[in-house]
Design brief:
Blueprint (H helix, E strand, L loop, with lengths): L9 H10 L17 H14 L21 E6 L5 H9 L3 E6 L3 H14 L4 E4 L3 H7 L5 E7 L17 H10 E11 L2 H13 L3 E3 L5 H4 L9 H8 L5 E7 L5
Parallel strand pairs: 1-2, 1-4, 2-3, 4-5
Antiparallel strand pairs: 5-7, 6-7
């Protein structure tokens, strides 16, 4: 039965559902199918050598996390199967990428690709992105990707969507003014949800000027397994770019 809000209009109730946020984790179970032997070894032995360690103070310049010189640092929140993360790291060796993913299978795939290609410009965080964002210094990253996140499609679960006012403030804090937050989804309600929340947040402006700006993926887009699944099932991805505007006095 739908919960009633005495004295509130339908519009007010819908607004309440749109602005509510969740204080727990924004993902479900973390472990799926058993890992192969090599994947298990990489998770045990290799991950600690490239993991972002929140037990240590964050450097004022996140470029110090990498063993090679990097001129920018980008963050991918929830890299899934790591197709996009690995592609960007290979094509841009001068950029450092921090990938965050709580699911074991995705982390294992990323570790395999990083080890096979000997990528020195990738660091990983195997936990909730909220913890990583809170650890990072302000204005520390040059871009943020969030691609095909869990849409939590049932309305009663919308509060578990990662995009909410509190997390957008977290992203805005670490993102340099003039840089971009990029979001992709094939779920119309989540696209609308994200547009509404970023519209209402003072730190972000949607950059689209024509339909092609949000219907077309970004340059050198490699695709992801979630995007391919969406296409097979007849859904269309939307690609939103938001500008981090300077804080107003």
């Amino acid at each position: 039965m739908r919960r009633k809000f005495p004295g509130r209009s339908q519009a007010d109730r819908d607004k309440n559902a749109m602005t509510d946020h969740y204080s727990g984790s924004f993902f479900g179970r973390r472990v799926g199918k058993p890992l192969r032997d090599r994947q298990a070894r990489l998770l045990t032995d290799f991950l600690p050598t490239i993991a972002v360690d929140l037990e240590q103070p964050a450097p004022s310049n996140l470029a110090e996390l990498f063993d090679v010189p990097v001129k920018e640092v980008w963050l991918e929140i929830g890299f899934g199967g790591s197709e996009h993360l690995l592609h960007r790291a290979r094509e841009n060796p001068e950029i450092g990428y921090i990938g965050c993913e709580p699911f074991q299978s995705g982390m294992a795939k990323a570790l395999t690709g990083i080890a096979d290609d000997d990528l020195k410009n990738v660091r990983l965080f195997y936990d909730d992105a909220v913890k990583l964002l809170d650890w990072m210094p302000a204005g520390a990253v040059d871009g943020v990707y969030q691609l095909y996140p869990d849409p939590w499609p049932k309305k009663k679960h919308w509060k578990r969507r990662f995009v909410n006012p509190v997390n957008l403030t977290r992203i805005a804090r670490v993102l340099k003014p003039g840089c971009h937050y990029r979001f992709a989804s094939d779920i119309d309600t989540y696209v609308d949800w994200t547009l509404a929340h970023c519209r209402d947040h003072p730190a972000f402006e949607w950059t689209a000027e024509r339909p092609a700006d949000w219907r077309t993926p970004w340059a050198n887009w490699p695709g992801t397994r979630y995007e391919r699944k969406a296409i097979r099932e007849g859904r269309i991805g939307r690609y939103l770019t938001f500008l981090r505007v300077p804080d107003r006095p």
